[in-house]
Amino acid sequence: MSRLRIQRIEVKAFKAFKHLDFKLDGRNLLAYGANGSGKSSLYWTLYTFLQSAQKESTEVVKYFDKDRTENLIYRYASDDERDAAAIAVTLQDGAESIGRIYTLSANQQDTLNVPDILKGSLASDFITYRILFSFYHFRNSQSIDLWPVFEQEMLPFCQGTGVKDIAGLWKDIQEAKPFETSVALGESSWYRKKRYEKFDREVERFNTTLTGVLTSITKEAQLFYDRNFSQKKEPKLDIIVGMTRPTSTYYRDKHFHLAPAIGFEIKMDGAPISRPHAFLNEAKLTQLALSVRFGATLAHLHDSPFKLLVLDDLLISLDMENRMKVVDIILSETFADYQKVILTHDLGFFNEFRRRIGGQHIHWSFQHFKNPPSQSGSTLKEAKSEIQKAEDYLNGQNLDEAATCLRKAADDSAKRLREWLSKEKLPPGEFFSLTGNLREAKKRLLLTIPKQLYEKVLKGTPIELLQKLVPNSVADLDAEVGLEPAERGKINSKRGTLRKLLTDTHWKAMENVRLIDDVLATAERVLNPGAHGGDTPLYEAEVVIALDLIQRLEKCLP
């Protein structure tokens, strides 16, 4: 199946955007920005676009009609800009030379019942930090009720076992209003009774469907948790998501019905815990919440050429180690078919996510939401790494600025290299110098190489000569008539191991030691901002060499 991807997003006078024209070109998006910079506006732009495929025009145009109180028009827009408020999304698959543009505005809805977008609205997933808060914002004395967040953020993407999806069933129940309808039609008590009975049948159908949906979610949530978060040393943890109160039938004397309640409980080594938010810490609750939310995604996979996974500040309650576990999940084959949009206010997390992407970066766009000046609207700007900035400055012959960017990149890489080799994080808030981090990293590397081997064999010896130190031939062993074939085989195997140590394991460590020495030498001048003034200006060749060294230093990291 060919995959539809978003090529371009144009937004006029909607939410925080005065005018956004962003070319995504089919890539995934990783973007950061401070709260209020426009991240959530992009989230709701994409959500509104997809959901519009299954909504009547009156439910969509209200967001763009300046005369409607429900409008989401940019607050500082002029009258002309308000009239032109719109969302336009260009979709294209690999087989098409020209994309298809779909527009939403006060007088246009190109998406209604379009098969690819309709399927995409069910196959896609939108997840915000609110889903996590819903698991632990209850008081200790209260039981968790997930229905409010389930109705808003999960129900639209769930599929029941019947002909109509569960969101459609719930919508019918909400809109039925049997008493008001019967009175308006002037029906007799007999017809009114029949209307009530029909309503009750729809409620029972919904409850049965919801039970099946929650059973599927529980199963997938458990698998997700066991695969990604469960620890051998921890007690066995079982997830239970189910209705604690079904949707009520119609109260005929008071003319209303009750929405369902969805409980969340766990078992720990078989012992039931009815209020996990009063028992577990926030990090563990976040792991469970993520398992339930992604379980809902995986329980109701829809076949569609167009799939979006949009995450808005989802992982703010997790420490960096657990965040990166989730990043690995997002980058795994599980979500390979999705075009991903990841939004965060945490620059540190943005940078770690970007590093994790690594060699796949050509499939990603890295952007920064700019805090909008008054009345100018939010904008997106490419978020370049310090290395990329250095390359730009170097190309523009601004050598001092290029060197400053390289120093920042070197500081970051040296710190991470030291932490990786020592297998522990440096204390936050304390200063560690570039040279200090590099020397500690070098010390750790040298610990992996026997000292005499380093000093007398590896140091200064080209790899071509190292490869000749241990012969790859067994000819000399053939002359040893007393050797049994098995012994000859063992010796040859040991030679292979020794060759690998000399030319691979120890050689790589040696190469990294040499690289650190070269960076340390460069740190005295190119990477030292205090050395850029005076009578000795920087030369382009010096900065080019420093750029190559820092790029190689980054590649040392996993």
UniProtKB/TrEMBL annotation:
It comes from the Bacteria. GO terms for biological process: DNA synthesis involved in DNA repair; double-strand break repair. This is RecF/RecN/SMC N-terminal domain-containing protein. Coiled coil: none annotated. Residues 6-358 form the RecF/RecN/SMC N-terminal domain. InterPro entries: P-loop_NTPase (IPR027417), RecF/RecN/SMC_N (IPR003395).
